[in-house]
Amino acid sequence: TGGGGGIIQIVQTVKTDVFSMESSSFTDITGMSVAITPTSNTSKVLIQVTLSYGGENNMYAGVNLLRGNTGIIIGDVGTGSNTRASFGLGGDNNNFQYKLVSAAYNYLDSPGTTSATTYKLQIAATGADSTPQMVMINSPYKSVHSSDTNAYIIRGTSVITAMEVSA
Q1: What angle do CA 4, 104, 26 make, to 5 degrees?
Q2: How confident is the model at residue 160 (pLDDT cuts 50, 70, 90)?
Q3: 5 and 165 Cβ atoms separated by less than 8 Å
Q4: pTM exceeds 0.90, yes or no
Q5: Helix or strand or coil: residue 159?
Q6: Contact 75/81 with Cβ under 8 angstroms?
Q7: Could you give the 3-state DSSP secondary structure of residue 162?
Q8: pLDDT tens-digit series, residues 41-84
């Protein structure tokens, strides 16, 4: 009763397998989408993302959050060939290829519908010289692209959660 802000429903997708890509063009991250059907067109949807990622040394990636096929929160134009994205990932040049790190991102959306709505992530990755760079989800670069089987190679999980919030 009274004001909004109550959680009506929660839907979650957990990704445990490995995704890799090498492109400076935004590409869907397989398995990182979640569908929710709001009960009211005034409801908001809180999207929470946790990504476990790795990549080649000196990798820089942009990640976009989309509702359907439309980016819903993207950085401004910037200058030159700046990459516009919802949020960024990156790795240093000091053995990053062996590391698994994580990033978290949240956004409160107002979809304005009671139809099934899908949220998904896309990623694009470049190196310091703006050439495409290998980025991995749930794995360091070296666990897939070499025979390194040591215990310091961490395989992780990634999660996208959608929560309907009353207005």
Answers
A1: 105
A2: very high
A3: yes
A4: yes
A5: strand
A6: no
A7: strand
A8: 999 999 999 999 999 988 999 999 999 999 999 999 878 888 89
Asked whether 39 and 49 are in contact (CB, 8 A), the reply is no
Q: What is the pLDDT of residue 2?
A: 56
Stretch (H or E) spanning 143: helix 141-144
- Which two structure tokens, joined as six digits, stand for 20? 């890799």
Instruction: Say how far residue 21 (Cα) sits from the centre of its chain.
Output: 13
123 within 8 A of 60, measured Cβ to Cβ: no
AA identity, residue 127: G
Distance in angstroms (rounded) separating the CA atoms of residues 125 and 117: 27
Tokens at 145, concatenated: 């692209």
Asked if 11 and 162 touch (Cβ cutoff 8 Å), the reply is yes
